[in-house]
Amino acid sequence: MIRQIDHVAIAVPDLRAAWALFGEVMGGEFITGGDSPEVGIRVLQIKFPPGVKIELISPLDEESYLHGYFEKRGPGFHHLTMLVDDVEAADGELREQGYETTGLDLDDPTWRETYMRPKSAFGSLVQLTDSPADWHTPQTHITVEQVLAGEVVWVDGATAALRSELE
């Protein structure tokens, strides 16, 4: 079922401080990032040898679901994302085996997803996706500073763009 592990997401209250640790001190390579206003988060993806990715997620404002998450659990591990060949089939197979899933979303062909509920995955939120996008090659049209400054936004499930280009 699982084609590969894509990333581990870490919820952080201060994305700039998290980048200082994971990027500047530990030597992670910036891949991509941007704001996801519909979810209320800013994302920064970082790659480490031999290709392991960490996704740092931070709330955009006090309305973001991450504020409630921080109150309940604090910063730290948020979810594990795995790539599958067909997320709809994977969701069905998990349900057939008695595991609870939630949030099956097939609307965006660049990021179709479902989640295994933590009570079915030993306390961990597991995201499954069948995205065809290349999530491991660093994007050269944006910089980490632009992401940290809020100048980058996701225009679909797999494309980050400068806000100034969209105006």
List the helices and strands and how they pair.
Blueprint: E1 2-11, H1 15-25, E2 29-36, E3 41-48, E4 52-59, H2 65-73, E5 76-84, H3 87-96, E6 101-105, E7 113-116, E8 126-129, H4 144-148, E9 152-154, E10 160-162, H5 163-166
Structural commentary:
The protein is α+β, with helices and mostly antiparallel strands and 167 residues long. It contains 5 helices and 10 strands, in the order E-H-E-E-E-H-E-H-E-E-E-H-E-E-H. The strands form 2 sheets. An 8-stranded mixed sheet has the order 2-3-4-1-5-8-7-6. Strands 9-10 form a two-stranded antiparallel sheet. The model has no long low-confidence stretch (mean pLDDT 94).
Quickly describe the structure.
By secondary structure, this protein is of the alpha+beta class. The protein is 23% helix and 37% strand.
Q: How much strand?
A: 35-45%
Low-confidence stretches: none
Q: Characterize the largest beta sheet: strand count, sense, and whether it forms a barrel.
A: 8 strands, mixed
Calculate the terminal CA-CA distance, rounded to whole Å.
41 Å
Report the average pLDDT across residues. Answer: 94
